[in-house]
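Morning!

This is the sequence you dropped in the shared folder:
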Amino acid sequence: MRFGVARPLGGVPSGREFYAHRACLVYDRSVPGMTPLGLGGLRMKRGWAALAAATVVLTAGGCGQAHQSTPKVPADAVKVKVVASDFKWSLSQTDFAVGKPIDFVVSSKQGTHGFSIDGTDISQTVSQGDAPVNVVFTPKKEGTYTIRCDVYCGSGHQDMIAKFHVH
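The structure's back. Tokens below.
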């Protein structure tokens, strides 16, 4: 799986390509003899070695899966069950009051998805088999809000939207 590519201006590959192996090891393919397990030719420069070490430290919690602490859910929050499946969101409720906190309890029935609300900084990844995640949002104005998947999930990804209304 490709981890990232450093490219100079103009988009021309620089030759420094990093890859993440299933065991979350990172290696520099441009070093002759380098392998996913680092056998033979483990001759990375200090800067690249530091980058690799930092990458391993940052991804140690699940090979790149971000872990966020559960937000404190206000006692007066409206609980809404949200289930992600391939190319759709299912919400247990879609009408809310301005200024009333909403506790979206988000889970995934199929695959990995990103729960985001347009116009906000809310973005939470959920995966099939993981425990539900609480996402608290307090709408400050009336209107129709759009929930989108912000993690590419397949051919119907662009259609994975749901709307809710605030009065």
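Headline: The longest strand covers residues 78-85.

More detail when I'm at my desk.
O.
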